[in-house]
Each structure stands twice: as structure tokens, then as C-alpha cells.
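Predict the assembly for these two chains.
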Amino acid sequence: MALLETRNLSKSFGGLQAIDKVSLKVEPNTVHGLIGPNGSGKSTFFNLLTGVYQPDEGSQISFNGIDITSSPAHTIAELGLARTFQLLRLYGELSVLDNVMVGYHPHTKYGPLAPLINGAEVRRQDKAVREEMEELLEFIGLAEHAEIPAAELSGGQRRLLALGRAIAMRPKMLLLDEPGAGLSPVNVDNLMSTIMTLKKRYNLTIIVVEHILKVVMSTCDTISVLDHGQKISEGTPEFVKGDSAVVEAYLGREMADEDIRAAMDA
Amino acid sequence: MVFLSRIADLIDALASRHRLLPWLIAYLMLLPLPFIMSTFFNSYLIDLANRSCLFILLAVGLNIVKGFCGQVTVGHIGLYAIGAVTSAVLSLEPGGFGGALGFGLPVWVSIPIAVLVTAFAGLIVGLPSVRLEGAYLALATLGLGESVRIFIAVTPALGSSTGLMMIPAPSIGSFVFDSFTSYYYLVMTAALVGIYFSFSILRSATGRAFQAIREDTIAASVNGINVIKYKLLAFVLSAIYAGLAGALFAHMPPGYLHHNNFTVIEMVTLLLMVVLGGIGNVWGGVIGAIVVTIAYDQTKDLVVYFMDRPIVIQPLVFGLSMVLLVLFMPRGIGGWFEGVLRNRRFIKRSEEKLGGTARNS
């Protein structure tokens, strides 16, 4: 059974059809790539999946067999769907450790009023969570910076922290919105290998939006291509690479075939 | 600066023995304050200390919703008024002066009821936060807070323009908290317990959820935080502080309440405390409350003469200091001190790594 399935997922903003009847299936334990030119609706698609936007009538999203079409964002998060943001959206003034501890929030076992009623229990549980989160920071290589505010990290470290915060949610599925944006090619390779290690370690299913086609082609099991809010192609990296509809969407009709290959491999 | 961080180190050392040890020591150190004041200065200072404690409760409470959770509310003084008037009216004897309401309940019953009523009012003040942000939320809460004061000012049953008089003082057995000194122990204890619980909230998943909402609401919701629930919770928690402060204010000697205690000026003063102390910083709020209460009191009679006419310049002084603070010290005393502490800790850790070689350089 597919872990995530959308049927006729649509979203319009006024007259603009940002996502147009997209149906998609993602199988467990796979890496699914989502590519498309700028403005093709990739980020909107993520926002719909995670409840940041509400989809239009007639859409349907199910995750792990549960209908989440009109669920609020926090409920979807509790079901095990985590994401990162293109612009990261870290909690800048909070320490690195606190950032990942916020990520752990869905698994907090005490109620919001517990600190007033049962402080001992709060301290006991928080201590265990802190140790676990310190271990996670160790794993992604940020343990040294646990105490400093997230805003003071370097660009690459911030991307790692955004990833760590999503992993701290113990998700079943992870949506990555351009994880490699702004990184040098070497750093992108390192980040992708970290992501693949995390995938194995935590048994994750991943959907990744990425502009760097090389990364997508080498890591994804299946790829969907969006253009103007519509899904224009889907299949293995090899199939998508050769699909004329994709080539057209990216480069226009006139472009010669060899140039396209070169662009894809770059 | 060095002195302050020494104190911080000392507190850390004490806390490592037992978590509550610094609190106990602070409490014991505060106990003889009224005697020191009345012996060496004058007993008016005790009244000032009492009012400081009430404003500490208010500032610490406001810090929860504004500092931790980032919701700009300007209606807090209205909640303070609700707490004060509710407890006063519930405890007054029926048939008081000027048609004031009275239910004759014991003070120890009226205070908890007032706190509950204020908590509920806090929920209502918080409702606009579901849809509004920033300046719009500030306007909505300002309207709610000010309407509370106006409602009190025009309702004879709640004191209207004459105010509520002869509000009974709390008592335990035959001991009555009707002097500045005896009341000091009541409000000081309340303030210290309030600060303690504020820290408890901050250092829990609840506090982290509040701060996440402050930093980035969308990221917080995607991290599984029910944003609406936590925003409203922050408003209710801060209302509990305001309600308690208000109720304690009502029964404080001389047991008199007037709606002039709850104007926008008071609200601005309260905001100044939180900003001066450093938004989001608990100790900053406490320091801000003490400094501003004293400054407010000392500048009350500050008058300059312009063409032989007296002009009260206190509002000017306060407004100006607010502007200067936001410009030059946006994170307040607390934010500055936190930076100092963090740098020290960083240096310490680097020194340990280098085996003490950095110490001499």
C-alpha cells in the first residue's frame, strides 16, 4: 500500500491554478523526486500535503491509510509527516538544542499544564528527551554548537539543523524542499549522503524537491515532474530523462536533443 | 559586569546542590527588607516594594504571552482591572458606599474566584490572536482592555468615579494583613512563586512551543504544535498572573480601588518594564518592574515651569526612554546580560579545550 496518496489534488489562488488535479502515489521506503521549472507548484504541493494550505474541493490526500485532506498542520505532523522548508524557518533565537527539542514536540507525553502541576515529571522526561536529542545532534554533527542560537550557525549548518529538527519528529515520511539550495557541490554531496544515512537509520520515506538535477537523478527511485501545476511525467529517473514532455517544459520546444542531455547531466 | 556574572556562577553552584536552594536563599534574604527600610529609610518604601511586587507579577505574566509567545497584547492592564474589581466586589459587604455591589465572601475565596474570572477574560482577550497579528492584535487587545476600564468607570455597582472603598484585608486567624509590612510578605511570596512558575513554564515543552510560535508560526504548526491552543493558553496563563496581581492589589492597604489605576498610561508603564528588562527574559522583566516602579514613583512630581506654568513631564520622560530603549537596547537589560553570560561560557569552554593556555593571553 502506498504510504502517501493524493487524488485530484488542486489548489487555486484567485485565478491562478497553482496545482491542477495532481494524483500521486509514494511507496514506503522509497525516495521520490519532485522536479519542475520555477513556479511549477512544487512548494505549493508540499504546503498542501503538510496542511499549511487547505486544498480545493474534490481533492483527496491520504497518508498511511488516513485521510488528511482537511486536517490541520499539527495533526498531520503528529501522524508522522515531517518537512523542511526552502527558507529553513529555523527558530533563530532558540538554541540549536531547543530547535530539535521543539521538533520532538509531537511525542511529548505530558500535557501543556504539567509544568505547573507536576514539575518533577516534566524535568524527568525533558532530561531523557535532551539526551536523545544531543545524540541526534552528535549524529548530524552539530553537537558542538548545541548551546548557541540557531541564527548564529553557518549556512550549511543551518541546513543540517533544519534536517535534524524534522528528524526529531520521528516521522514516517520526510518532505525535503530544496535541501541543497545555496550549498557548494561538495556540500550538497555530503548533505545527500547524510540524508541517505538518516533514511536508512530511521526507515524513512522521502519526497525531495530539488533543482540540482544531478542530485535528483542519482538518489531518487521515482520522479514526478510538475509544470504549471500539472503532473506532466512520472517514472524512473531514466524514463523521465528521456520524456519529451519534460524536456519541453524545461527547455522549450526548439532546444536540440544533445543540449538537453548535457543540461540534465550537468 | 564581572560582579553580576559572579552572582550567576554562585546561583548555578547553589542550584547544583538542590534545585530550590537559590529560591530559598532569595526568600530568606527578602524577609527582613521591610525592617531595613523602616529602620534606615521610611516605611513609605515598603508600600513601594509592595507595588513593585505586584508589577513583577504583572510583568512576568505579560512576558509569557508577549515575550515567550510573541503575541503583542496591550490589554493586559484590563485583565489586572478585572482581577482587582472582581475580588473587591466579591469580598465587600453588601450595601456599601455609593451603590457598590458586595457579596461578603471571605477574601481567601474571592481571590481564587477573581483569578478564575480573569483567566476566562484572558481567553476572550486572546481570541483575536487566532486571526490577527502584530499591530492589529495590539489594537484589538487595546480596545478590549480600555473598554474594561470604561465599563468600570461608568458602572456605579463597580465603583464608577468614586471608586471602591473599605475593601477588606485578608487575614489568617486573628492576624490581619492590613499594614504595609504584613502585606509585603503576602505579595513578595506571590511574586517569588510567580517567577518560579514562569521558569517552570519556560523550561518545558509548553515554553518551547510558545517560543516556537514566536519565532515562526508556520514552522511551529508543521512541528506538530497546535498554534491556536498554545496561543490561547499563553493568554490564559498571563491572565492568571494579572488576575492574582489585581486581586492582591484590591486588598492591599488602604483597600481602595479607582479606575484611574488601570489607564493606558499604566499599560505603557507595564510595557516599558518588559521592554527595559528584555522581552522574553524572566529576570529582565523582574528587574524592569522594580526599576520602572521606582522611577515612576520618583518622577511623579517632576514638574518644569514653562512661562510660569507647571508642566508635568513624567509622560514625556517615560515615552522618551521607551523610544531610546527600543533604538539602542532592543533586547533590554536581560538580553544584554544573557549575551555576557553566553560569551563567558563560550570562553570558559574554549579555555578548557585549550588546557588553560588562553587564560594568560
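Chain B touches chain A through 30 residues (CB under 8 Å). The mean pLDDT of chain B is 88.
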